[in-house]
């Protein structure tokens, strides 16, 4: 192996190690998160780490097969984050604001 090939191999291996460590730490945060919002953010970041792992695999194999899969995962991660944020926003509204829009606010 030449110098640049060795350097590329070391960089790709270290990228995979960082992705695996980040994934393990995120799984810990998802399981032990103190609040639902922490778990939602950790799931969103986990989707990004999976995308980064697929990117590292594509770079390692020098194959562009995983690019459409990465794009779909990014879209699903974004829509999932927006859905969770909307759910948490509705759940955490003050009680007086929720009642104002309902039947009790019409009296």
Automatic annotation (TrEMBL):
Recorded superkingdom: Bacteria
Gene Ontology CC, one term: plasma membrane
Main subcellular location of this protein, as a coarse class: membrane
Compartment(s) where it occurs, according to its Swiss-Prot or TrEMBL record: Cell membrane
Protein's membrane topology: Multi-pass membrane protein
Coiled coil spans: none
Molecular function GO terms recorded: sodium:proton antiporter activity
Alphabetically ordered keywords of this record: Cell membrane, Membrane, Transmembrane, Transmembrane helix, Transport
InterPro entries referenced in this protein's UniProt entry, alphabetically: MrpF/PhaF-like (IPR007208)
Entry's family note: Belongs to the CPA3 antiporters (TC 2.A.63) subunit F family.
Protein name, entry field: Cation:proton antiporter
Organism: Streptomyces sp. gb1(2016)
UniProt lineage: Bacteria, Bacillati, Actinomycetota, Actinomycetes, Kitasatosporales
């Amino acid at each position: 192996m030449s110098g640049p090939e060795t350097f590329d191999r070391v960089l790709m291996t270290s990228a995979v190690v960082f992705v695996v460590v980040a994934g393990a730490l995120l799984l810990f945060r998802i399981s032990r998160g103190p609040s639902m919002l922490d778990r939602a953010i950790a799931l969103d970041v986990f989707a990004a780490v999976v995308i980064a792992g697929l990117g590292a695999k594509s770079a390692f194999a020098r194959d562009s097969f995983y690019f459409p899969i990465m794009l779909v995962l990014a879209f699903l991660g974004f829509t999932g984050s927006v859905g969770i944020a909307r759910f948490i926003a509705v759940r955490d509204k003050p009680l007086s604001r929720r009642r104002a829009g309902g039947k009790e606010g019409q009296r």
